[in-house]
Amino acid sequence: MPRMIFVNLPVADLDRSKAFYEAVGFTNNPQFSDENAACMVWSEAIHVMLLKHDFWKTFTSKAIPDAKASAQVMLALSHDSVADVDAIVERAGEAGGSLDPTPRQDLGFMYGRSFEDPDGHIWENAFMDMSAVPDGETPAPDSGDNGALQRT
């Protein structure tokens, strides 16, 4: 079985959240969706589980933080072009998300924008042109899509 990630997010309104994620390009996997959860697929390796608050609470006794007031994680997705980054962010806005809650980035070799889903979860979106990375710098190993650089 390939390595995969399942990001679990607590959501206040499952139907609204499912519609939002479909609008930005995720696909629902009904095999792992029901009245308490929706499995939203980004790629073969990346799945987002949207969980109603009451269902979320069956997994942990920790409080669900208000993601509009605090942030514990910023999730990041890679894209094939600057246009793809702009398109997903614009779709997020049209679907009820907040645009660019974090600063836009345009470093020449890397471009990034972000959105918040209706519950306040932050999604960064980035395109990186590896052929244009400045000499002597490479993306840090396992740095994800945040564009962290290290000197070589």
From TrEMBL:
Pfam families: Ble-like_N
Domain VOC, residue spans: 3-128
Region spans: Disordered: 132-152
Segments crossing the lipid bilayer: none
PANTHER family recorded: BLR2408 PROTEIN, BLR2520 PROTEIN
Name listed for the protein in its UniProt record: VOC family protein
Organism: Pelagerythrobacter marensis
